[in-house]
Amino acid sequence: MSLTKMALALVMAVTLAGCNKATSAGGAGAEDMSLGDPKAKIVFAEYASVGCPICAKWYKDVYPAFKTKYIDTNRVNFVAKEMLVGGGVEITVASSGFLMARCAGKDKYFAVIDALYKNQDEAFQAPRETLMNIARSVGMNDAQFNACVSDEKALQALNDRVEKHNKEGVDSTPTFVINGKKMEPGYHSLEEIDAAIKAAGG
Question: What DSSP element (H or E) covers 115?
Answer without folding.
Answer: helix 109-118
